[in-house]
Amino acid sequence: MNVYRYEENPLITPADVRPLHENFEVIGAFNAAVTELDGEVIMLLRVAERPIMEEPNMVKVPWIDVESGKLTVHAIDTRDSRYDLRDPRVVQERGKSTWSYLTSISYLRIARSKDGRHFDIDDGAFLYPSGNLEIFGVEDPRITAIDGAYYITYSAISPAGVGVGLAVTRDFRSVERMGMIFPPENKDVVLFPERVGGTYYALHRPVPKGVGGPEIWIAESQDLRHWGNHRHLLPLRPGQWDSTRIGAGAPPIKTPSGWLELYHGADERNRYCMGAILLDLNDPTKLLARAEQPILVPEADYERVGFFGDVVFSCGALVSRDIVKLYYGVSDTSMACAELRLSEILGALTYL
Amino acid sequence: MNVYRYEENPLITPADVRPLHENFEVIGAFNAAVTELDGEVIMLLRVAERPIMEEPNMVKVPWIDVESGKLTVHAIDTRDSRYDLRDPRVVQERGKSTWSYLTSISYLRIARSKDGRHFDIDDGAFLYPSGNLEIFGVEDPRITAIDGAYYITYSAISPAGVGVGLAVTRDFRSVERMGMIFPPENKDVVLFPERVGGTYYALHRPVPKGVGGPEIWIAESQDLRHWGNHRHLLPLRPGQWDSTRIGAGAPPIKTPSGWLELYHGADERNRYCMGAILLDLNDPTKLLARAEQPILVPEADYERVGFFGDVVFSCGALVSRDIVKLYYGVSDTSMACAELRLSEILGALTYL
To answer: Which of A141, B122, B194, B289 has its CA 20 to 30 A from that of B253?
Structure first.
């Protein structure tokens, strides 16, 4: 696969983003959705901010208080044996099977560009956590333009679980929430850009606690707000690069051969790559083809090293004739872009 | 709480049900949905059958082969150290966090009664597992009558996860599937019997793998097939009888005070009891009241001892004026019924 990484990469880093919160620092500007509007490339960044650590043996954990809507910070002594702090992203209480706090809070913020390489970042948040389902933040958006409106799906994180919220904008100035469309545990939801046979489709990625894995499912809707007829679509591949976790990345790309979905996959070592599948143009619940090898793997320095290294994670692409401009988060830290040939991706698919 | 258990309890036991499959035995006839039609009480039983064990050191695990639609049995040597067989319900592979096989396969079967105490059991299955989302069976149905149709929600079990299917019947002779309405991991879905403010509601119980617990959520629909606007409704109560797992039981009961939901809760010792909450009549996303103590606890022999003991688990109730006839599964084995006073349940609620 020929991959042309922009010379300007990384396009946006945490240093480019002024924190919204006093005594916080930006540690991530990554996993952005991307679209075009009025001649501009718009990235909807996930910005992660964390409290500045002044004391050596303290970790501070932030969340939004539901009653007041205010950002709240709690300090945890790193020597306190009740806590496990080995994963830099979370604070875990020993004896519990999952984390209790995140070490940063994420919200969505807009970056704008004329050339797709140089971006200016809006001052405020575009979508800030709100209500009891977003106490720990909002993350990893995707944008799908449908009939002149831009629909945004995003991860909503709270003590009740990780679900997927829907919001809509027409101008990337104001935004309206449409509720949680996939309940916990779910992430990585992309909407198809048009009805297929009269029906809207979405790819989603549930994470069952019991039997079943973090695999890709497909669901149907008539109004984008309500979803049903869930079907299992794409399994993990034991022993391969996408063996432990997969999820839809960019919203599906319509091609004459079918719907092309660029998805992420991780292996046992938590290396995240991007791969490709093809779905039937008239029935996207039918998997036609899957690429054996990833189309993008972490190779550049900025993809190998960061807050959580060895990660390329795309939430959106711009397609112009045979060029796929794949925007992607790197190392849970920054944003990058690479161009690939659509025809080459399609040529790499193995039909089932 | 005054509880009148029927003298005929248990009303149906596995011995009353002829197995559908050759060389299988019925080990459970339990967790039945209940409704009334043409002067009959209809129970939709979960019937669990398992392969008869002829050899002492073998466990046989059944599933439905997707291609052929045929029941398939695989034998596992109990001395094989790769497997953990301590839970009688499942076969677990060591080193995996969840089960790989069930030791029985469940399907839905009808029992009919004139008096609600003596039941005749239909010969065949009413809803038999079908397709790749029901490979390991269908379980724990609920029935809600809406506008002359009977909607059935049930757990669909497969290697891809445990989700919730919807089906509809008008006569309890034929049935039509309407797809999976809640993707994995989810169970314990009850539909409200009418629109509230123009909207259908359902209670559901996701099980997130990461943050969040097996708690009760509420969702909205316009057509019963597609669901959205998911909201968190009812938390676990650490240290109490409903500390580890809760889920909706009987479909919500309309009372002048609000929607009464009789739900199940389990504690650290896996004792399942039934409890009660009250939701706002005009906005069921609002929790008005919750009973501190359970309304039904395992006390009778048949509730204490069985395939999985110390369990009372209701999937449906019939209400006649002030009498709640609570049908419930006992010890994952049989069916029982107890009468409680509606007024007494409502009187036991603590308003928030």
So the answer is: B122
C-alpha of A213 from chain center: 19
Tell me how far the alpha carbon of residue B185 is from its chain's centroid: 15
Phi/psi region, residue A116 (left: phi>0; alpha: psi -120 to 50; beta: rest), is left
Cα end-to-end distance, chain B, whole Å: 21
At A222 the pLDDT is 98
- Distance separating alpha carbons of residues A274 and A271, to the nearest angstrom: 10
Q: What is the pLDDT, as a whole number, of residue A86?
A: 87
Lowest model confidence (mean pLDDT) among A87-101, A144-158, B153-167:
A87-101
First to last CA, chain A: 21
Domains plus CATH for chain A?
Answer: 4-351 (2.115.10.20)
Q: In this complex, is the C-beta atom of A132 within 8 Å of any C-beta atom belonging to chain B? A: yes
- For residue A304, the surrounding DSSP H or E stretch is helix A301-304
Q: How many CA within 13 A on the CB side of residue A214? A: 22
* Tokens matching residue A34: 């991307």
Q: In this predicted structure, what is the pLDDT of residue B53? A: 86
Angstrom distance (rounded) from CA A271 to CA A276: 16
Residue positions counted in chain A: 352
Q: Measuring CA to CA, how many Å separate A175 from each of A18, A179, A227, B125?
A: 22, 12, 21, 50
pTM equals 0.97
pLDDT at B86 over 90: no
pLDDT band at B349 (very low <50, low <70, confident <90, very high): very high
Torsion, Cα of B324, B328, B330, B332 (10° steps) = -170
pLDDT at A214: 98
Chain-chain contact of B183 with A204 (C-beta, under 8 angstroms): yes
Residues 11-70 of A with CB under 8 A from B: none
CA B246 – CA A144 distance, rounded (Å): 36
Of all residues in chain A, what percent are helix, strand and coil, respectively (each to 5)?
Answer: 5, 55, 40
Q: Which chain A residues are closer than 8 Å to B232 by Cβ?
A: 132-133, 158, 160-161
Report the C-alpha gap between A210 and A127 in whole angstroms: 33
Residues 6+ apart with CB under 8 A from B100: A211, B90, B91, B92, B93
B-chain residues near A160 (CB < 8 A): 211-212, 215, 232
Positive/negative CA dihedral, B261, B262, B266, B267: positive
Within 8 A of B61 by CB-CB distance, chain A residues are none
Query: How does residue A88 score in pLDDT terms, banded at 50, 70 and 90?
Result: confident
Q: How confident is the model at residue A97 (pLDDT cuts 50, 70, 90)?
A: confident
For tokens 């940063």, what's the residue? Answer: A104
| A131 near B CB under 8 A | no
What is the number of alpha carbons within 13 Å of residue A210 lying toward its C-beta?
Answer: 22
Q: Which amino acid is at B289?
A: A
**How far apart, in whole angstroms, are the C-alpha atoms of residue A203 and residue A205?**
7
Q: What is the DSSP string of A62-89?
A: EEE-TTT--EEEEEEETT-TTEE--STT
This model of the complex carries an ipTM of 0.97
Structure tokens belonging to residue A191: 């909407």
Place of tokens 């989302």: B133
Residue A95 is predicted with a pLDDT of: 85
Q: Write a three-state SS string for B228-291.
A: EEEEEEECCCCCCCCCCEEEECCCCEEECCEEEEEEEEECCCCCEEEEEEEECCCCCCCEEEEE
